[in-house]
C-alpha cells in the first residue's frame, strides 16, 4: 500500500483538484486544499487514502518526494498523457491505488497468519521442554496418566514401622559387591585359538544369561568373541534398521571396553570367515542347556583349533552349567562382571529407565516393584491353565499341547491346576500379593510399580490390586508414548499376512454332491454359519477355529522385540526399587525367570535392600485358610503372614541357593561375587552373620582395604522389639482386616468385619 500518489498533469490544475475531491470526497478529512510553499503548482491534501500530491512540474514533484521520504511515506509516481483529461486520469489512478491497497491488505493478512503460527509453535515448544523439567522436579505436577494419591499420614524414616517396611536388612548390611579377580589373572592372549560366533534366541532373561555364559566360554577356550547375534532383534522382524541385533538392546562399545582385560571382543568376523559362513562351511554346535566345561574342552576346542572359527546356537537361556568347580571360580566372577557391569543398555533405553526412576522418587516416598511372572509359557509348563477362565485357559492348553509335542514337557495335557497351586507351582495372583502386602503393613497409598513385558490374563487380573492400592503404576503410566517410540527408532509400516485369511473358510459343496448321478439326489448339506472378520479378529480369534497356533505376523514379531525393551526398562526400575516382591520365579522352561535375575542383581548390588522371597506353598496354605472370607482376618493370621514375609527376606536366600542357583548363577551370585565389610558392632561380629540367621551364604572373603565400608551400630533392643511387635495386636489394622483375639486361623462372630480402605496399617508398631 502506497501512502503518497504524485500525479504529473499538463491540464488545468484546478480541474484535476476538483476531480480528485469529487472522486474521493468521503476520505478527505479537511474541506479545503492546502497549497504549501513547495513551489508552483504543488498541492497537498490531508486525506486517508494514498492520494496526497498533484503536481504540474518535475521540480515541484521533487519537493513533494523529499517531504514524503522525510515523513517515512511510500510514494507512487505517474504522469498523465495530453490526450487524457485530468478527470479521467485521476479516476483511473484511483482504481490502481485501490487494487494495490487490496493486494497489500492480503499480503499483510498472510504475514499475520504466519506470525500467529510461529507464535503457537514457540508456545508449544516452550511448554514441552519446560514441562519436562517441572515433572522431574515437582511431584505435584505431572503430564502422565499417573496422578499420585497420598494420605496425610506422615511415615517418618526414623519410625519403627518405616524400618520394618522399607529399612535395610541388618544381617546383610556387611555384604558388599566385589567381582574383581582375587587370584593371579592374566589378560586375554592376543594369539587366540580362533573366533566364536554366537546366535542367541529367547526372551530378556534368557539372552542375559546366555551372553554371560558365552563370555565365560570364550575365556575358557581362549578365543575371540564376536558380538552375539540376538535372533529376536534382527531387522527382518520389522524393527528399525538403525539398530543391529545386539545394539538394539545393549551398548556395544561399553561391552567391548569393559571386557578388554578378560577376552577379545570384535564386532564381526573377518571377511574370509564371513564368506565361509555364507557358504555354510563353518562348524556349528548347539550346546545343551547347562553344558559342562568338559563339553567345550573336549568337543568344541579341537574343532576351533582346526577351523579357527565355530558357531554356537544357544536357545535355552544358558549354555554353561551354573555351578563350576572351585578352580574355575574366576569364571563365576567374570559372569558377574559381564552381567552387572559390562551389559549396559542402549543409551536411549538407559536414559528412559533412569527418568522413570526419578519420576517415581519425585514424591519423596519409597516405592515397591512387583513382577507378576504370569506368562503364557510359564502357566502352560507348570499346568496352571485352570487358574484362569474362558479363552485364557484354552490358550494355555494349546501352548501346553505344543510343548508336549516338542518334548519340552513329559507330563499329561490335563493337569489339576488347583493341586499345582497348592504345591506352590503356580504364580501368586495379583489379588493375593495385594492381600499379603496389606497384611504386612503397607498402606493403601504405597507406590507399586508393576514390571514384566507380558501379563497373561490382561489388566482385568490387576483390578483387585488397583482396588487395594491407589498408586499402582507401570511404564506406560510414567512416560509418554512419544518417549517410548523414541527407543524403538524409525520402523517401516510392513503389513504381513493376516490370520483372517486362513480362518475364514469359503462355503464349498462336498465332493459326493458334485459327482452324484442324476436326480433325484439328496439335498446338499446346509452351509455353515458365515465367518465374519469381527468374529475371529484379535489375538484370541484362532482358538475356536484352528488346531494349532498360527504363524506370527510382522506386527507380532515387532512386539516381541519391543517387549525386550520394555523388560529392560522394568529391569532398571526393579533393581533400583526400595522393595521388591515376585509373583513367580520360573519361566516357561522351568528355569529362573526375569524376577530371579532382578533378585540376583539386587543381592549383588544392594544386598541389604528389602527383597521378599515368599514361599508360595506356605502362602497358598495361609490364603486357603481364609478362602471363604478372604477379606476378613484375625490377629493370628496377620501375625503369621508378617512372620513369614519377614523371614522370607533371609530364609529365601537359602532356598534360592539350593533351587535357583544350580540353574542360573546370576540369580544367586553369592558368595563368589561378594565380600564382608568391616562392620563396627558391639554385639554381633561379622563372621556370625550366616550362623545367626541360619543361612548358607558362606561369605568369608574380607573386602579389600581400598573399598569404602560403612559403619553400622547394632541396636539389639530394637531388633527384639520389632520381633515382639509381630505378635502384638494392631490397633489400626481393623481398618482393613478385622483382628480377633482368638488364636484360630479364621475370624468368627464379632471378630469378622469386612475389609475397609486402609489409610495406614501399623503392623504392631506402637
TrEMBL record:
Topological relation to the membrane, as annotated: Single-pass type II membrane protein
Transmembrane regions listed in the UniProt entry: 102-126
Subcellular location: Membrane
GO terms of molecular function: glycosyltransferase activity
InterPro entries in the record: FucosylTrfase_pln (IPR024709), GDP-Fuc_O-FucTrfase (IPR019378)
Involved pathway(s): Glycan metabolism
Bias (Acidic residues): 757-766
Record-linked PANTHER family: O-FUCOSYLTRANSFERASE 27 (PTHR31741:SF46), OS02G0726500 PROTEIN-RELATED (PTHR31741)
Record-stated family: Belongs to the glycosyltransferase GT106 family.
Name of this protein: O-fucosyltransferase family protein
Organism: Amborella trichopoda
